[in-house]
Write a structure and sequence with these properties.
The protein is an alpha/beta fold and 247 residues long. The protein is 43% helix and 18% strand.
């Protein structure tokens, strides 16, 4: 089992988490009629920090790096609901599917190939169903991963959705759409990326009779994301503090 944080750190983490959770629930109550999930993004932060929040009842944690997630999932309690939110490489699907029994969601699927791989590998160990989000490059930025938001490439999204809804896809549950959005947009009052994601969600709900969710909003812009209809926000630095640089 993992070490606990110092008492001072524990207090700081709890106070940060609670103030974010309060804004999340108040914004949701004021603007939308659904509950909004808060995922605590713990990448590059020690397992002791996660234990500090876990002991206060927090269960949803987000991680970006496969090896770091494997290590943490091995040393931390099995009822944690891990969200993988980092860039997903095809050759890492195997580790995610096979080594993390309590992997709750993969939010960064960006191809049919990755849908198929994740499903068949999870099936091989007959693991619990993984919730998946298709990542959408709503800002149409070349350096961002995700399915293109451009209308002419919509068939790639349809193709993946149809696989996720097929009988063959027994070990993935299509939960919704995810976006990061451009940095520039998050400094404006209104983030057009969030509107674009919600419009696409509505289109898919209509086309396939679904009730999809949206994962959008981070420390800087989660209030706006909730106003626009986000079902799940991913907040890191406002809870855990600023991160060290990766390596
Ligand atoms: C790191 C990260 C977050 C959290 O970002 P903060 O600005 O620290 O809240 C959310 N989503 C993704 C995809 C991330 O990589």
């Amino acid at each position: 089992m993992s070490a606990l944080p110092s008492i001072a750190r524990q207090k700081e983490l709890l106070s940060n988490y609670e103030s974010i959770a309060k804004v999340v629930s108040e914004t949701a109550k004021k603007y939308v009629q659904h509950k909004v999930n808060l995922v605590a993004v713990s990448k590059l932060k020690p397992s002791s920090d996660i234990m500090g929040l876990y002991n206060e009842g927090v269960r949803h944690f987000g991680e970006n790096y496969v090896q770091e997630l494997v290590t943490k999932s091995q040393e931390l309690p099995k009822d944690i609901k891990w969200h993988f939110i980092g860039t997903l490489q095809t050759d890492k699907c195997k580790i995610l599917a096979k080594q993390i029994s309590n992997l709750y969601a993969v939010e960064t699927i960006d191809s049919l190939k990755k849908c198929k791989k994740l499903n068949s590998l999870r099936k091989e160990i007959d693991g619990d169903v993984i919730n998946v989000y298709l990542q959408i490059n709503t800002s149409d930025e070349p350096q961002k991963s995700g399915y293109s938001i451009v209308e002419s490439e919509r068939s790639l999204i349809y193709e993946s959705v149809e696989f996720l809804l097929s009988e063959e896809c027994s070990h993935l549950n299509f939960q919704g759409l995810m976006t990061i959005g451009s940095i520039g947009e998050s400094f404006k009052d209104e983030n057009e990326d969030f509107t674009r994601l919600v419009n696409l969600k509505n289109e898919l709900n209509e086309k396939y009779s679904l009730d999809l969710q949206t994962s959008m909003g981070m420390s800087n812009d989660f209030e706006d994301a909730i106003k626009k209809g986000s079902s799940s926000v991913r907040v890191g630095s406002s809870i855990f503090g600023s991160r060290p640089p990766k390596n």
